[in-house]
Amino acid sequence: MKARALSLAAASCGLVLASCNLFMPVAQSPLPRQPDGMVLLSHSSISMDGDLENVRIKAATLDGASPPDAYIFISADDRYFDGFLHYSVPNSSVSWVSRNGISFEEDTVFSEGGIQGFYAREGENLKNITDNIGSANEVNSQLVSDATVTPSNFPAIAAGWDDTLPTATGTAWAFVGSNGGDILTWIHSGPIGNVTPLASSVTNGLDVVGDSFQVLTGTDFWNSGRVDIRKAGRSADGLYSWFVAERHDDVRGIHENRLVSVPDSASVLHTSDHTPQGTAGSWLVASDEDSNGASRQFILLDAALTERHAFKLYGTDVRYLGETVNTPFGPTVPASVFVVLSALRRPGSGDPVLHFSLWACPTAELDQL
Amino acid sequence: MTRARWMLAALAAVALAAPVLGQTREQAEAEGLAPRRVRIVTAAVPGNAKATALLAALEPFLRIELENGTRLVMALGSDDADLTLTLSAVQARSGWTLSAQPVLKDGTAGAPKTATVADITVDRALAFLKQVAKALDTAYPPVAVTVTEVVKDVVVENTETLTITKGVTLVIEGPPGATLTLPDGAVAILDDQGRWESEQPQNTSFAYRVTLPGHMPQDRVAFVGTKDTVDRVAMELLDNWRFGLDLRYADLVVVPAAEWYAVPGTVFVGLALESSFLSFVQFFRDEENPLVHYLDIQASGGLWLSRADARFRSAFVLGLGTRLDLGAGLFRFSDYAPASLRAGLRLSWELGSGFSVFAQLDARLALILPPPGVDPGLVLDPLPMGIFMLDGAVFGEAPTIFVGGRYGL
Question: Over 50: is that where the pLDDT of A155 sits?
Fold first, then answer.
């Protein structure tokens, strides 16, 4: 009798426990809520191995597909998991993309004029490498060679914007380079070939940029004489170009970036410490330099690099991808697209999973987020 | 007759009338408890002289058990005995059925005691004899001494015998206004002086319950002897505040909590802070810690369903909560459960000295704020067990069980 009662009690306890929630509802969300106005376009995920703590998006851009797809460069602590991913909406998948042995700088990734890729330098040449990354699709052209002034000491870099956008005006491509201490910008209708005419020339502009650095100042560091042009862009309203200037101390292993905007037909430039992510209409979309792992603040800058609006998006990391019209907002409405990464461990197994989601907002409403 | 003669005649008449009209009383007083006197009789077993003899042989052993193990005393004759115990035996299929039947002096029969033994021997029947002795001791305890008063009425020469149990005064002292629930269910209130008194029989016990709002109720027993008795009641204040920690989920989340008693001992409101920051398991595990944590701010109200002085108590708890996401640059209402309604059942073990531990079964309805166009099932990875309601706007969580401890002030 006693054994039967004990069995019944044990069974009852087991039943209650089995129907209970044993683990806390943790705060990890594959699709974190974003500010009102942001609309989810798509969502996908990929499993990976390794430590999730410092998984971040190093660079990302749209790949021009409709609906929008993206290329995403992932950085992680473990070098084995550094990767180049292709986010593909039609298949709702994320797949690894091989570098095919090609060395490139991810932060030069671009999507302009219907062409996507990134640049690699080779001496005085700029390589434009397209999406397949294989040698067959590698365009090895000397982009800047017969310009009015040929860049000498520092390589030029090219960037542009999507001239298929209905709001696009002017010429699509900008090339930024230097000659001596001068900063030069050219604009051109295509990505390859000779570039004319000269859009602006800021005499001793590199000195102005060099003087704007806040940490690596003076000559008390290794490499003090050098300012690199790392990444460039062109505003969609066709009024200014921008680029990132970098100084680095090779001994201490630190670097400092300055954002520089160069209005066309002007002899002045503007500098700031923002980290640019791309162009949205007349805005330059900048952000905090590093993601904090939970949110990222974005800042809308004008041509003078004045902060006009700030908003926050949520996720392990968030990147601005660029503008497109291929969104639910309509074929004539330019929309700004962001990719949100949520790096989570699968409950139970603990396997790491990267969740990617694309979010969009009409560009005209970015300053209302 | 002279005046002096009239006076002498009147005095003589009064003197002569006194034995006729007056009463005389004889009273014997004794104090304490009087034991019952018992006489043992063994019945003959019809047609079985041997069994009769064996049964008679058991009588001395029963006498020893009664004298050594009970409050009864042995009586020699039937006139002295308050109680006669008849020991009998009947042959049964597998041995003998022994029976002990007590009968009071007034003929009232008590509950018989029987047992089946293999044989009528001391070693077989000793356990039965012990049981009989114990049962008699319980059934016939010592009684209060009574006073026999003989009233002799000289006029009619009637003799009436009254039996009066002599009483003593029980005084209960305590906080004025305290309510006493008396043994018969009646209710009494301590007066402005904090006193209540009543006459009670000698050598009895008086069980009562004393209650006073804001104080711990007490069940008390006052022992009334042969003299007036005072039972002083000191009442302990109930807790106004209780503080403590809960331990929730298998993740061992430590949850600080505070409760304030609007009605001490009965109704409380509480506040608890639950956060994944305070998860033991998460803190000590090898994997990287999540970059986003949650903070549940939970307000609750509780109603204890059992008496404040009960060892084990149960309570119904109802609460509202809000949940925030916390992280670097992140402080906002969560997508999951930014507002929630909780209901729970608590079973508490009052350990004394202000300490208690409890287990609580808790369920909640959680509001979900999914981003536009997003399946509510994707707001958490994973969702708790439960069901969606109201087109996914609300999630009904399956219950959780957690434990906690409280210290009262």
Answer: no
Instruction: Select from A229, A116, A115, A104 the least CA-distant residue to A176.
Output: A229
Of residues B286 and A222, more confidence is placed in A222
Which residue in the set B250, B369, B379 is minimally distant from A23, CB to CB?
Answer: B250
How far apart, in whole angstroms, are the C-alpha atoms of residue B50 and residue B56? 10
End-to-end CA distance of chain B: give it in Å, rounded: 93
CA–CA gap between residue A52 and residue A342 (Å, rounded)? 10
Show the beta-strand stretches assigned E in B132-276: 143-144, 147-153, 159-164, 167-173, 179-181, 187-189, 195-201, 204-211, 218-224, 229-232, 241-248, 253-263, 267-275
Cβ pair A24:B292 closer than 8 A: no
| Residue A44 C-alpha, separation from nearest chain B C-alpha, in angstroms | 12
Q: Determine the Cα–Cα distance for residues A343 and B178; give it in Å rounded to an integer.
A: 64
The complex's ipTM works out to 0.73
Q: For an interface test with B, which of A23, A36, A81, A289 has the most B Cβ atoms less than 10 Å from its Cβ? A: A23
Rounded alpha-carbon distances, angstroms, from residue B402 to A153, B113, B359, B387: 69, 51, 6, 21
Q: Tell me which chain B residues have a C-beta less than 8 angstroms from the C-beta of A316.
A: 291
Other CB atoms closer than 10 Å to residue B222's CB: what's the count?
18
Amino acid occupying residue B357: V
Q: Which amino acid is at B62?
A: L
Mutation target among B277, B291, B294, B369 for the A interface, most CBs of A within 10 A:
B291
A298 pLDDT above the threshold of 60: yes
Question: Does A22 sit within 8 Å of B400, measured CB to CB?
Answer: yes
* Amino acid identity at A101: G
Beta carbons of A295 and B327 less than 8 Å apart: yes
Nearest-Cα distance to chain B for A33, in Å, is: 5
Nearest-5° Cα angle at A233, A163 to A224 = 165
Kindly tell me the sign of the dihedral angle through the C-alpha atoms of A121, A125, A127, A128.
Answer: positive
DSSP secondary structure string for all residues of B224-235? E-SS-EEEE--P
Instruction: Kindly indicate the confidence band of residue B28, based on its pLDDT and cuts at 50, 70 and 90.
Output: very low
Residue A49 DSSP code: -
Nearest CA in chain A to B334: A27
What SS3 class is residue A153? Answer: coil
Q: CA of A43: which chain B residue's CA is closest?
A: B374
Short-list A294, A329, A334, A289, CA closest to A312: A294
